[in-house]
Design goal:
single chain; 199 residues; mainly alpha; elongated
């Protein structure tokens, strides 16, 4: 086992000097940034569709109690606030270009990284609590029309899904985003450094 650990340590120290041109690295990094932009737009689109679905539910479902109105209102407001935050984050990475001003672009990527961490840490809990509260208010009327087994299943699935997303999924997304953005920052710093060397 010690021999395996020794080989693994040697492998970790081994570095391969790969020569990639600044242009190729720039193309690859731009492609990754465009992927982040597209993903951000997709997230915003899904949030808007979610808000529209909640509004449609509100309009076409015969709501009888104030709790259902309150629940749907809370959910729509939480979705709207989170969508605005997502849009503001999207604007950070969409308004700058590495070829125009590399330093400004790297700064905007760092700001984007900080905002994303805040989104997944503090602001996520606001969103999760608001959705939970809205769902509880919404379920007051809805569960009244269901059998006991259906009530238990609806509550278990709804809150189980929220707990699953709040723990495992959230942590994985935070880790992946943090690594991805840090790698992009590192690539753009190297590209910027190569351009400065050639000048």
């Amino acid at each position: 086992m010690q021999e395996f650990d020794h080989i693994e340590a040697l492998w970790a120290k081994h570095t391969v000097d790969v020569k990639i041109s600044a242009d190729d690295m720039l193309k690859q990094a731009k492609k990754e940034v465009n992927g982040m932009r597209t993903k951000s737009l997709l997230n915003i689109g899904v949030m808007i569709l979610s808000a529209v679905a909640m509004v449609m539910l509100w309009l076409f479902y015969d709501v009888q109690t104030w709790t259902t109105h309150a629940g749907i209102s809370i959910i729509i407001i939480a979705i709207a606030v989170y969508t605005i935050i997502l849009y503001n984050n999207y604007r950070i990475i969409s308004n700058s270009d590495i070829t125009v001003n590399p330093t400004e672009f790297i700064s905007s990527l760092r700001l984007y990284q900080i905002k994303r961490l805040a989104l997944y840490n503090k602001l996520y809990w606001f969103y999760a609590i608001a959705l939970s509260l809205g769902t509880i208010f919404y379920f007051v009327e809805i569960l009244d029309h269901m059998s006991l087994w259906a009530q238990a299943a609806a509550l278990t699935v709804s809150f189980g899904w929220m707990i699953f997303c709040s723990t495992l999924v959230r942590k994985a997304v935070i880790k992946r985003d943090k690594e991805r953005i840090a790698l992009l920052i590192e690539k753009f710093e190297r590209i910027s450094g190569q351009f400065h060397e050639h000048e």
